[in-house]
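Quick note —
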Amino acid sequence: MRAIGKGGDDNDTVSLDNGDDDDNSDQEDNDDNAAAILDAFEVSGVDSVDKVYRILTKHMGLGENSSGSGSGSSNNDNSGSKNGSKNGGLVDATACECLRWNYQGNAHLERNEISAAIECYGQAIATGYTEQEGVVLLMRSTAYLKRSFQHQAELRRAVEELDVLVPAPEALQSLFATAQQHPSLAHALHARVVSDTRRQERQYRRISYWHSLYEYALLHAAQDSLRATQLLPHYSRTWLRAGDALAELRKLREA
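Predicted structure written out below.
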């Protein structure tokens, strides 16, 4: 049996193969689509979680299980029980929503869109789908760690600029000696020193700003990764990410 289903204007195509057409023609008339055991499952043009969800619920008839979302009207509950009556609601709508946000976050992370990635991972966690919480936390800690490296680069540039602004002690001694030898220049030299000092103060505030952002991102990376180690204790990447964050925080022993 071979069936092809189209999802409206969408490009997802499903092809189901249930054995030889000639030998099983009588059985095909009696078999229920939801109870069929698939020997082959071919999918093309599927590039999103929503399409996968539609294939599972519409084309395969696996039914929708919305119990994990904890919301919905009585009509939705009735329809959900009707759809899931044959298969026990094998497809969780909450899982679909969580995965959709997670994959969107991954796409943003690959494009180095850190803020958008963190927002998507937060939305994925907010769905309350606990089976994916550890993985999502790991990815969000990765995003925070990448953000901390961006802030660290800005911090280093600010420190280098401050190093140029701060004069060497020899230069200050020479300036002071010139003011003593030429009192008429003292006022101008004093004004120059005051101006340079104000520039240094502004640069120091920039350094403090970038350092705060750097440590803020690191703390979030450490928090998410350490929580991920609790949820996924046997997954090595969670421990590696936690070690990276702790090392950046100079918690070398814990790392």
